[in-house]
Amino acid sequence: MKKAFTLAEVLITLGIIGVVAAMTMPTLIANHQKKIVVERLKKVYSTMQQVQQLAIVDYGDISEWSPDGTSPIWYPNPGTAIVRKFVLPYVDAVRVCEPNECEYKYKNANGSETDLSGFIGFYLKDGILIKINDYHGTSSTWGRFMIDINGDKGPNLAGRDVFFADFDLSNGDRCGKESLFCFFCCDGCSNNQKIGCFKKIVNSGWQINSNYPW
């Protein structure tokens, strides 16, 4: 004669399963999210490297690039000029956001918000948003891209779905050489600083390791 489980035994078993699930599910979800982050950052990196190579074919070495083909001065708005001339013709963008066309804000590590609505940007097919984050164009021409791997969807938080990469068209001081998409040597990735988190993932062999400030 088979012995049936009592109601108490069933409830205890279900309780144990529930506790185990509660302990493991957050880790499984986080690992899945991290995998998506890495995959999308890989796509961005590959896309922008291809864009750079195609632009070099048309315009020559990056040190020779200029807004009008003659003047090396990019002031007052190098970010917009660079994206229009050297990025958009070579990228498969599903939507282009000219300055003040697309409202967008992201949250920094310290809790403050940065409004990029006034900067040019574009969306890739899978919803990735790339925008100019800031730029300098007087004595030297360099600046920063903001990459949101899921576009308008939250949390729009630096280091989680928002990442950064630089461009340096003037002398390569920031990235070691002139580059349309590179990483500044001295940017960090910690609980208080998220500017260098894209670089940290790349330098970790395209991994989000246990010491990453997730």
Task: Give an account of the 3D structure.
This protein is an alpha+beta fold and 214 residues long. It is elongated and about 90 Å long. The strands form two sheets. The protein has a six-stranded antiparallel beta sheet. A two-stranded antiparallel sheet has the order 2-3. It starts with 6 loop residues before the first helix and ends in an 11-residue tail after the last helix. The chain has three helices and eight strands; from the N terminus they run H-H-E-E-E-E-E-E-E-E-H. A hairpin with a 5-residue loop joins strand 4 and strand 5. The model has no long low-confidence stretch (mean pLDDT 89).
Mean pLDDT: 89
Shape: elongated
Number of helices: 3
> Looking at the chains present, what oligomeric state does this protein adopt?
single chain
Sheet having the most strands? 6 strands, antiparallel
The SS-based structural class is alpha+beta
